[in-house]
Design brief:
The protein has 167 residues and is mostly helical. The chain is 54% helix and 2% strand. The chain is built from seven helices and two strands. The chain has a two-stranded antiparallel sheet with strand order 1-2. Strand 1 and strand 2 form a beta hairpin. Helix 2 crosses helix 7 and helix 6 packs antiparallel against helix 7. The radius of gyration is 21 Å and the shape is globular.
């Protein structure tokens, strides 16, 4: 048996020999869209309803309900993280959120990105349609903007459940 002597002495060739040049496989920064900060709209309840109507598909067994690829528990996991911050910030009167709340909000953003990347067929369409990342980025330490975002998340969960979201 012939042994190919690669640098790391493994039987597997380096990436650039196996599957093309490793530098050609990377996306350029220009091809990846920037996440632009947005404010949650004043009519966030109507916006949440439109998101859920857009994401739902007609249910073949019950025409009064919709089928969603995202489960109630996935959305509620996000809502739980938002609620942890909301429980602190709703009791305060200052204009800016606490640094601790901002850190949790940034971790929420990371968690949403991870879940969307991990489950592209279920979570990613929800994140894109609901503009969660854009709205989180738009909060920018503003307590009122955060509270509106928290209410928007509650509306998303409510409409998901109302239109037939599954566990």
């Amino acid at each position: 048996m012939a042994y190919t002597n690669y640098e790391n002495h493994s039987s597997r060739p380096p990436r650039n020999i196996r599957g093309g040049n490793q530098y050609n496989n990377k996306r350029t920064a220009a091809s990846i869209p920037e996440i632009e900060p947005l404010d949650v709209p004043e009519n966030y309840v109507d916006a949440a309803e439109q998101v859920m109507k857009h994401l739902g598909r007609p249910n073949t067994k019950d025409s009064s309900r919709l089928r969603f690829s995202i489960t109630t528990s996935k959305i509620r996991n996000i809502l739980t993280l938002v609620s942890d911050i909301y429980n602190i910030e709703s009791r305060r009167t200052e204009e800016m959120i606490l640094q601790e709340s901002n850190s949790k909000l940034q971790m929420l953003r990371i968690r949403i990105l991870y879940e969307a990347g991990r489950n592209e067929s279920e979570v990613k369409p929800f994140v894109k349609s609901s503009k969660l990342l854009e709205y989180i980025k738009g909060i920018q330490m503003n307590r009122e903007k955060f509270i509106r975002f928290a209410h928007y998340m509650e509306a998303l969960v409510a409409y998901h459940r109302y239109y037939g979201g599954r566990d």
